[in-house]
Design a protein that fits this description.
It contains nine helices and five strands; from the N terminus they run E-H-E-H-H-H-H-H-H-E-H-E-H-E. It has helices at residues 24-34, 53-61, 69-76, 88-97, 106-109, 127-145, 150-185, 197-206, 221-232, and strands at residues 9-13, 38-42, 190-194, 213-215, 238-242. The strands form two sheets. A three-stranded parallel beta sheet has the order 3-5-4, sandwiched between helices. It has a two-stranded parallel ribbon with strand order 1-2.
Length: 246
């Protein structure tokens, strides 16, 4: 429907989402862009993995501005159909010189941004809880010394890493919850990050009265969307987020 509505300008935010051709999303974006006089893409990360992704991205802005796929890969990549760009810096210079990319670095825009405010709040921890939870980690360290294969060593190291993350998080959780309650009572909206599910469960219990929403590896995509919507629209002032899931 959008191409039929007579738009003259389209701006694609996070245009790197169009780095893969052949998808329905890409086809829809291409149809819309064809009908517009001005097409702009915004991104802090124009490509994610393969350098050739930039061809798909700028193709939305100006069709075949880098030639067709075969000529692009022949000129800029390691041969026909290859995704590896031989000289990324040179390609970047070409894109900027041709006006296909207008780049502003962080240093260039810092003077236009408000000053950063960072307040570090020291939080207490329960040493007894920490020591108890670290006992299995110490036992795993002893097993690590006796590990005979790289596979066993990697598995034990991962176990130690997980336990060392969980222990301080659980030891601090009651004090973090108390600090968050104070922020909420002061009218603040709070994003509360944690790494371990056990820590999330502690927050779920301690902060239940605040009706928090959760964005972790346990929720479905629909549940995550509802959590974000609830936080953004003011239905809750507390969103607990997994550092990995987000």
């Amino acid at each position: 429907a959008l191409p039929q509505m007579g738009f003259r300008t389209v701006i694609f935010d996070e245009i790197q989402e169009l780095r893969h051709g052949g998808t329905e999303k890409y086809s829809a974006a291409s149809l819309l862009a064809e009908e517009c006089e001005r097409v702009i893409g915004l991104s802090g990360t124009p490509i994610y993995n393969k350098g050739s992704e930039i061809w798909n991205v700028v193709n939305i802005l100006d069709f075949h501005c880098l030639g067709d796929w075969e000529s692009f890969t022949r000129a800029w990549c390691d041969g026909y159909g290859n995704h590896l760009v031989r000289d990324p810096a040179l390609l970047g210079d070409h894109l900027r010189r041709e006006g296909l990319i207008l780049r502003r670095t962080k240093q260039e825009v810092l003077t236009e941004l408000p000053p950063k405010r960072r307040l570090v709040q020291e939080i207490d921890a329960d040493d007894a809880v920490y020591r108890e939870l670290m006992i299995p980690a110490m036992e795993a360290l002893r097993r690590l010394r006796d590990a005979r294969t790289n596979f066993d060593r990697a598995r034990i190291e991962d176990e130690i890493c997980q336990r060392m993350r969980r222990a301080p998080g659980m030891a601090k959780a009651p004090y973090v919850a108390a600090f968050v309650r104070a922020l909420l009572e002061g009218g603040e909206k709070v994003l509360l990050f944690a790494h371990h599910h056990g820590v999330m469960d502690a927050y779920r219990t301690a902060l239940a009265s605040a009706h928090p929403v959760f964005f972790t590896g346990r929720e479905t995509a629909a549940q995550k969307d509802r959590a974000v919507d609830a936080f953004m629209t003011g239905k809750t002032d507390l969103c607990c987020i997994s550092m990995r899931a987000a």
